[in-house]
Amino acid sequence: MCDLIFCFPQIKKQQQDVMSFLAANKIDFEECDIAADEDNRKWMREHVPEDFRPATGNPLPPQIFNEDRYCGNYEAFFYAREDNAVYAFLGLTAPPGSKEAEALSKKTQM
Questions:
Q1: What's the 3-state SS for 12-69?
Q2: How far from chain centre, in Å, is Cα 59?
Q3: What confidence tier does 10 reach under pLDDT thresholds 50, 70, 90?
Q4: What would the mean pLDDT of 27-40 be, rounded to a whole number?
Q5: Helix axes 12-24, 74-82, angle to 10 degrees
Q6: Hey, is 77 helix, strand or coil?
Q7: N or C: which end of the chain has fewer CB within 10 A?
Q8: What sections of the sequence does the record tag as coiled-coil (predicted)?
Q9: 66 contacts 92 by C-beta, under 8 angstroms
């Protein structure tokens, strides 16, 4: 299961983009509201690795996790989607017949 951490109205489009993709691909996820739940906000801030935190302030949502494993932010998700590598980004096995699985199959045949 992938956990998604969201808040702020300005991020709503990114939130919808991630959730729509996950739902369309039947990937289970849990949306965690950091605006209304201080524990979720604290958890997100503590679990974003130091290398991925902004120089000043706190990391902004959406931040994407697979359980406790940090996957990345929206920008990283966007690029993984563009590269047909979302399952790898999420730490999941691509389902047979998916573009990602086909690309991996071609790489291993070389």
A1: HHHHHHHHHHHHHCCCCEEEEECCCCHHHHHHHHHHCCHHHCCCCCCCCCCEEEECCE
A2: 14
A3: low
A4: 90
A5: 40
A6: helix
A7: C
A8: none
A9: yes
Q: What is the pTM of this model?
A: 0.84
Specify the amino acid at residue 88: A
pLDDT band, residue 80 (cuts 50/70/90): very high
For residues 25 and 99, give the distance between their C-alpha atoms in angstroms, rounded to a whole number.
12
Q: Letter for the amino acid at 98?
A: S
Band (104; pLDDT cuts 50, 70, 90): confident
Q: What is the pLDDT of residue 6?
A: 52
Q: Report how far apart, in Å, the C-alpha atoms of 44 and of each of 1, 24, 47, 85, 108 are.
A: 16, 25, 5, 24, 36
pLDDT computed for residue 35 by the predictor: 79
User: Residue 106 and residue 32: Cα distance in Å, rounded?
Assistant: 37
